[in-house]
Amino acid sequence: MATFMNAYILEKTESGNKKQYYVSFIDGNYVLHKMEINLDIYFALFKLNKIDRNLTRSGERNLEHLDLTEEALSKCSLIK
After folding, report:
1. Which pLDDT belongs to residue 6?
2. Cα torsion through 49, 54, 57, 59, rounded to 10
3. This protein's superkingdom (predicted)?
4. Which of 1, 54, 66, 72 could make an SS bond with 59 (beta carbons 3.0 to 4.6 A apart)?
5. How many angstroms separate the CA atoms of 28 and 14, rounded?
């Protein structure tokens, strides 16, 4: 299951006409790093975050169906 982007925090700040983009993460030694990135990298990470989230949700939906028993599936499929 995808959880890659949970380790990163994307931020966008505006001061006047200047926009700045940052990514924050904790390394293997538990040290927080905050780096300024350009717009292209920000949008690439933003898009990756959306893909990662969608894969996670898809996996959760599929796992939910695996946990259902035949009886539970039958009850869901019957129209009363």
Report:
1. 67
2. -110
3. Bacteria
4. 1
5. 30
